[in-house]
Design a protein that fits this description.
The complex is a heterodimer of chains A (57) and B (255). Chain A is an all-alpha fold and 57 residues long. Chain A has 2 helices and no strands. Chain B has 255 residues and is mainly α. Helix content of chain B is 72%, strand content 2%. The longest helix of chain B has 33 residues, at 19-51. The two termini of chain B are 27 Å apart. Classes of the chains: A mainly alpha (57), B mainly alpha (255). At the A-B interface, α2 of A face α2, α3, α7 and α8 of B.
Chain lengths: 57, 255
């Protein structure tokens, strides 16, 4: 085990800004892409359903 | 016009080159790749933070490697796959190939940005600078602009067929940048270190570090496949909205 405690873990040996800055931005961007993928599909499906039901839904 | 056929082992592989065959197949595959990505990512993070030891030179800052190297590999590999589909689309004039190329570009740009971002945050503590205009960093930045250029060019042309072909030509010309990125650390003097992992030699890093990196690379692969297939399905719905097979799906209310 590398870490004596959780605060030791979050401190990252003094490199917290660089390590967590990398992981946080990467995670944020991946989540953003997943949301954009969902939205794009929802919009495409919605358009088809609206068209085929003549806007009656 | 008759469909082209490519029969190997009693399977006509071009069958899956048609959107209506590919659409349900991709839909069935996405959850598997997504779960595989999540599993590999969790395992990779565990190995990367709790099993892999502290680096004796760089301390804990090296743990950025578990994001940086997989993202950089992915950024180059996605570009090659994108250019491959663009080339296939140009030669065989297959709609699905161009859709795959378009579906890959945003995810490729994402990984290129992650590689640049994590590289910058790794460069500051190890080199003392966020950025240098050396060969490796500059060519990776050009890769980001190639992805953006591909997407912007395709978006700027209204007629889909022309947009596909213009984008494909740009993607193919840009392929020349990939070997430049890959070999830049050998061809030029650069701050960026050489490859720690190669196909020909043993990796010059601790075994557990290597394991963590490979797990994260697998996660990036599976994620990219899931994301690209998902986006390709949306593109199919957008572009083929008047095709019979789409009307069939939309009629069931579950496209």
């Amino acid at each position: 085990m590398n870490w004596a405690s959780w605060s030791d873990f979050f401190a990252m040996g003094g490199y917290a800004l660089y390590v967590w800055g990398s992981y946080a931005v990467t995670a944020g961007l991946i989540v953003m892409e997943i949301i954009l993928l969902r939205n794009r599909r929802r919009a495409a499906v919605g358009q088809l359903v609206r068209r085929d039901t003549g806007g009656r839904t | 016009m008759s469909q082209p056929t490519l029969v190997i082992g009693n399977v006509n592989w071009f069958k899956y080159a048609s959107p209506q065959a590919f659409y349900p197949l991709a839909g069935a595959m996405i959850p598997w790749f997504a779960w595989a990505a999540a599993a590999c990512c969790l395992a990779g993070l565990y190995v990367g933070f709790f099993v892999a030891p502290t680096d004796h030179q760089q301390g804990e800052s090296y743990r950025i490697i578990f994001l940086h190297v997989p993202a950089a590999w992915m950024s180059m590999f996605i570009y090659l796959v994108m250019a491959f589909w663009a080339g296939v689309g140009l030669v065989f004039n297959t709609r699905l190939s161009h859709m795959m190329a378009s579906a890959l570009a945003p995810t490729g740009a994402l990984f290129t940005f992650i590689a640049l971002w994590t590289g910058s945050l790794w460069g500051k503590p190890t080199w003392g600078t966020w950025w240098v205009w050396d060969a490796r960093l500059t060519s990776e930045l050009i890769l980001l602009f190639l992805y953006f250029g591909f997407m912007a060019l395709a978006a700027a042309i209204d007629e889909p067929r022309r947009a596909d072909r213009a984008g494909a030509v740009l993607a193919l010309v840009g392929v020349v940048n990939i070997p430049i990125i890959y070999f830049s650390v050998k061809w030029w003097n650069t701050l960026h270190q050489g490859a720690s992992v190669s196909l020909t030699g043993a990796p010059t890093m601790a075994a557990t570090m290597f394991t963590g990196m490979i797990l994260m690379a697998l996660a990036a692969w599976f994620y990219s496949i899931a994301a690209a297939l998902h986006r390709a399905r949306s593109i199919m719905l957008e572009r083929e909205r008047n095709a019979d097979w789409i009307t069939h799906y939309a009629g069931t209310g579950r496209p």
